[in-house]
Structure formats: C-alpha cells, structure tokens
Amino acid sequence: MSVSEPVGLVLVSHSASVAQSVAEMAAGLAAGGATAPVAFAGGDGEGGLGTSSELILAAARSVDRGAGIAVIADLGSAVLTVRTLLEDDELPHGTRLLDAPFVEGAVAAVVTASAGADLDGVAAAAEEAYTYRKL
Amino acid sequence: MNAFEPALDGEYVRRWLAAATAAIERESDHLTELDSPIGDADHGANMRRGFTAASAAVGKEPPQTPGATLALVGRQLIGSVGGASGPLYGTLLRRAGKALGDGPTVTPGELCTALRAGVDGVAQLGRSERGDKTMLDALYPAVEALGSALDSGAGLVAALAAARTAAEEGAVATVPMQARKGRASYLGERSIGHQDPGATSAALLIAALGEAAGEGAA
C-alpha cells in the first residue's frame, strides 16, 4: 500500500441533503491543507429518501486512491445495501464498512485520513467516536 | 404423486416471477398501508419498482437455468428497490440461485435446500432471527413446511401449497409481535398489533411458487 495516497471516505445516507451536508461539514472541520477524498451517496437516486446501490458504487470508485475506502452509513437499507455490495465483492478492493456514528464518525474519519492515517487508523478513530459522551 | 408436476427449470422461475410481479402489483397499496403505521409507507411502491425492473431484465435476456434466473432477479432487486427489502430479498434470491447450481432443471428437494440457504442469508445480512417481526417470520415456516411435506412424500404442488399456508400463517402471526429490527423497532410496544409488511410480501412471493407450479401442470 502506498503511504502517500489517502484513504477515501464514502458517506451513505437515506437523504441526499444529509449525505452532502455531512460530507461538507467533515471536510470543513478537517484542518487546512490537502484533505482526503470524500464522496457521498444520498437518497434513492430519483430524488426520494432511500438507498441507491448505483450511487454507492459510483461514490466509492470516485474516492479510490488504492489505500482503501472507509464507508459510513446511517441506518436500515443504507447499511444493508453496503453490506450486500461488500459480500458480493462489487465495491473496490479495500473497502470497509465502519461501525461508527454518522456525523461524528465522518468528522473523525476525514480528519485522520487527511492526516495520513491508514484504513485501520481511520476505522479506529471513527469507531471511537461512539465512546465520546456528551453528558 | 401428481403425474403432471412441472419441471423446475428456467421457465418455471419465469412463471414464478410473472406471478410474483402480478401479486405485488395487486397488493402494492395494501403493503404500503401496512407499512404506514410502523414503517415509512414505501414498501408497496419499493417492491413494485423492484419486481417491474426484474421482470424487464429477465424478459430482455432470459437466463438459461433456474439458478441464473433467480440470481438475476436478486441482482435487479438490490439495484432498484431503494429500501431495506432490496438487499434482503436480493440476498434471498441470489443465495438461492447460487445454491441451485448450473443445472437446467432442479428437483423439489434441491429447490427447498436452496430456499433455506437464501433464508439463512437474509437472517445473516439482517442480523435477525425468527420472532423479530420481519420477513423471516413468514419465510422460515414456509421452507420448513415445504421440507416436511416433501419428506413425507407429498408432490411438489401439494408441498408448495403447504409452504404457502405456513407463510400466510407466519405473516398473520407477526401481528402480536414487538418489532426488534428496522424502523418499526423504534416504536417499541407500539409496533404490537400491526402485521409486518415484509412478512406479508414474503408470503406473496411464496404463494407465487405454487401458482407457477400449478400453471405448469395445467
């Protein structure tokens, strides 16, 4: 694996606007300089709420730099569709679904990926976001 | 044994798809109605979109074998449904199709084994089990009834009729259950008293297996 190429991040939400906004927010909160590639797949592809496997595949291909891809999904069909695509080997090599909260996990993933962490490091940071208590 | 039992070939799976698509079309509003109090009121429309796409794909280029036909339907559902039923039914049919292998015809026993493999795939993908108020509550009773009917010497048509009854009873049996998976699980006890839309559509797909066999026997 090349150390110079960043891990890509894909955000999958039932809502196109949620997916896009969280992608923008995560990229915006990553420290200045080069950020890791972030793509989103939101909605059913026809303007409604839901999940589109086509959008997920296109998003994953667009952020594939050969260093692995971290996928964060919101719930229900978003999670099940990513799992199905992974089982069928349809996503690029080195794609992993993270067990992470959508917003906090996305921010942690983009920050660590932009700092040069490998896929294990990105996954650990995003999944650790579950342990951050607010009270 | 019924002397007129149809061959389980690619043609049989295409008849099943036609019967299933017609049933989904007919029951689409009912599925959406069931999905309104406990889901997001899109199950009928989602299933309709998926089966319409699958029918078009199979009609355009029909695969030769029953296994490949089921697998193609599954792939279409994953790509077109838009809700959780897409990857779940898609996995069911792709796993079943794969388990049927490459033969031009399969035996009733092989169909039963393949369906069981598909249902196990659904349980694994959804991290779900019987009693969670899901499609599994119709699918597991159906494959069990199919298996025991075949084991006791019933012919295909009679065994599929037993599977249909078991699936329909399984769907009705979800009414008093509390949902433990999917959006309905957020409702907790308020999910009790409603029939699960996924179990209801699963019973339609099982019933279509029998319709396809009956048509072949005629």
TrEMBL record, chain A:
<dbReference type="Pfam" id="PF03610">
    <property type="entry name" value="EIIA-man"/>
</dbReference>
<keyword id="KW-0808">Transferase</keyword>
<protein>
    <submittedName>
        <fullName>PTS fructose transporter subunit IIA</fullName>
    </submittedName>
</protein>
<dbReference type="InterPro" id="IPR036662">
    <property type="entry name" value="PTS_EIIA_man-typ_sf"/>
</dbReference>
<dbReference type="InterPro" id="IPR004701">
    <property type="entry name" value="PTS_EIIA_man-typ"/>
</dbReference>
<dbReference type="InterPro" id="IPR039643">
    <property type="entry name" value="DhaM"/>
</dbReference>
<feature type="domain" description="PTS EIIA type-4">
    <location>
        <begin position="6"/>
        <end position="135"/>
    </location>
</feature>
TrEMBL record, chain B:
<dbReference type="GO" id="GO:0016301">
    <property type="term" value="F:kinase activity"/>
</dbReference>
<feature type="domain" description="DhaL">
    <location>
        <begin position="11"/>
        <end position="211"/>
    </location>
</feature>
<keyword id="KW-0418">Kinase</keyword>
<keyword id="KW-0808">Transferase</keyword>
<dbReference type="Pfam" id="PF02734">
    <property type="entry name" value="Dak2"/>
</dbReference>
<dbReference type="InterPro" id="IPR012737">
    <property type="entry name" value="DhaK_L_YcgS"/>
</dbReference>
<dbReference type="InterPro" id="IPR004007">
    <property type="entry name" value="DhaL_dom"/>
</dbReference>
<protein>
    <submittedName>
        <fullName>Dihydroxyacetone kinase subunit DhaL</fullName>
    </submittedName>
</protein>
<dbReference type="InterPro" id="IPR050861">
    <property type="entry name" value="Dihydroxyacetone_Kinase"/>
</dbReference>
<dbReference type="InterPro" id="IPR036117">
    <property type="entry name" value="DhaL_dom_sf"/>
</dbReference>
